[in-house]
């Protein structure tokens, strides 16, 4: 075991924490600009220390566990929610060299481990012993399970083209053409389903303030609340990385601009996806709960299946086939 | 027996799996039981991983730890989740079940030690996901399709049964 095996994950954790800190600030700034406001600008120059102050406030808050809550599960739930969020980062190839585990079934690993977070959310909602929290947890679980199916189905087209579940090989296969072009339907389905998996607007029904107060984490304060929020933003990091790897060619440089190092390309594409998530949040209204399920089962799933079928057919056509 | 990393990992994972199962039986609240069961499923995925069956391990997490556990939690939450099980079992009952479980354990161990494990070592690289796909969709395609039809029939049957109760 070399030193990098120990230091690497710790370093990644700090990078992710730094990302989360500034992603929150960036999100508030972007939404501010879109809504014709300035955004946070009081703490530090240009509001740079706003999130640091917010996190510090959360850490020094009183730690409250409701008297009638299931205490052990109440403590356990944020842990179950957060650990998978960080564990999925292990298989993501940031560049050709920077990857922690070159797992043969990396793509499925991501999908499988991320589904454990749902248990954490559900348990957190149940253990709070609060009706709003329980409803929020149930909604969240129903939504995340329903959208996981189109999410997995939309990437089957890529798996068929590459012939592998390994994320490294998927990036290697995109040296000439990124999968966003031949697999555009799959990309659209994947993007929508991933926003829903992240519980972000327009799919943030689990924490719809106007109807559920705040969803599954109503009763959580301080550090535990911070962990739920952290899990959510680490998933933003993970999902943006996965989208980059699957559809935007990972670290591959477009137009042969290879003098720019691969990690910069990765960060650029990654930032584009993150910005897109914030942009969608600022412009789209929340959709209704009955529309949510219909959309997943009647629109996204048939589209994803059609994408699989089209990929299979196009693979056999001589000229177009080489793109698939 | 030499102490390799694999052995240590197997020991920890099997203790986790058995511990989860024991806790599942001993807990009194249904939701704790379901969580203990999810923990057991997860540990079993770790054992598959040790056996180099990566695909099976990941599918175990996806289907059992993810989908099946959440389905159970959902079912519990929608029904009488505040109930606690009462320990109203007669003393002779536990003695009887202990004897039955011991006998079953004895039979299983006897079978394991009697069966010679045949076959030579093979290269594990050959048994990837691609090989699995070829086996399922070429060699065993008819049993596979039959199984999927069976699942579809079960699904449709469940919907019909649920619809009947509405009237």
From TrEMBL, chain A:
Keyword Lyase: no
Pfam families associated with the record: NADHdh
Keyword NAD: yes
Catalysed transformations (reactions): a quinone + NADH + 5 H(+)(in) = a quinol + NAD(+) + 4 H(+)(out)
Compartments where located: Cell membrane; Membrane
Taxonomic superkingdom: Bacteria
EC number: 7.1.1.-
Membrane topology: Multi-pass membrane protein
GO biological process, one term: aerobic respiration
Membrane-crossing segments per the record: 6-25, 73-95, 107-127, 147-165, 177-195, 233-251, 263-283, 295-314
Main localisation: membrane
Single GO MF descriptor: NADH dehydrogenase activity
GO CC annotations, alphabetized: plasma membrane
Keywords, in A-Z order: Cell membrane, Membrane, NAD, Quinone, Translocase, Transmembrane, Transmembrane helix, Ubiquinone
InterPro entries: NADH_UbQ_OxRdtase_su1/FPO, NADH_UbQ_OxRdtase_su1_CS
Family membership: Belongs to the complex I subunit 1 family.
Role of this protein: NDH-1 shuttles electrons from NADH, via FMN and iron-sulfur (Fe-S) centers, to quinones in the respiratory chain. The immediate electron acceptor for the enzyme in this species is believed to be ubiquinone. Couples the redox reaction to proton translocation (for every two electrons transferred, four hydrogen ions are translocated across the cytoplasmic membrane), and thus conserves the redox energy in a proton gradient. This subunit may bind ubiquinone.
Quaternary structure note: NDH-1 is composed of 14 different subunits. Subunits NuoA, H, J, K, L, M, N constitute the membrane sector of the complex.
UniProt protein name: NADH-quinone oxidoreductase subunit H
From TrEMBL, chain B:
Pfam families listed in its UniProt record: Oxidored_q3
Catalyzed reactions: a quinone + NADH + 5 H(+)(in) = a quinol + NAD(+) + 4 H(+)(out)
Main localization of the protein described in the UniProt heading: membrane
Gene3D superfamilies: NADH-ubiquinone/plastoquinone oxidoreductase chain 6, subunit NuoJ (1.20.120.1200)
Enzyme Commission number: 7.1.1.-
Listed GO MF terms: NADH dehydrogenase (ubiquinone) activity; quinone binding
GO CC annotations on file: plasma membrane
Keywords: Cell membrane, Membrane, NAD, Quinone, Transmembrane, Transmembrane helix
Membrane-spanning ranges: 6-27, 34-51, 57-78, 90-113, 140-162
Subcellular location: Cell membrane
Membrane topology listed for this record: Multi-pass membrane protein
Top-level taxon of the source organism: Bacteria
Keyword Transmembrane helix: yes
Family membership: Belongs to the complex I subunit 6 family.
Chain's role: NDH-1 shuttles electrons from NADH, via FMN and iron-sulfur (Fe-S) centers, to quinones in the respiratory chain. Couples the redox reaction to proton translocation (for every two electrons transferred, four hydrogen ions are translocated across the cytoplasmic membrane), and thus conserves the redox energy in a proton gradient.
Protein name as it appears in the record: NADH-quinone oxidoreductase subunit J
Protein's organism: Lihuaxuella thermophila
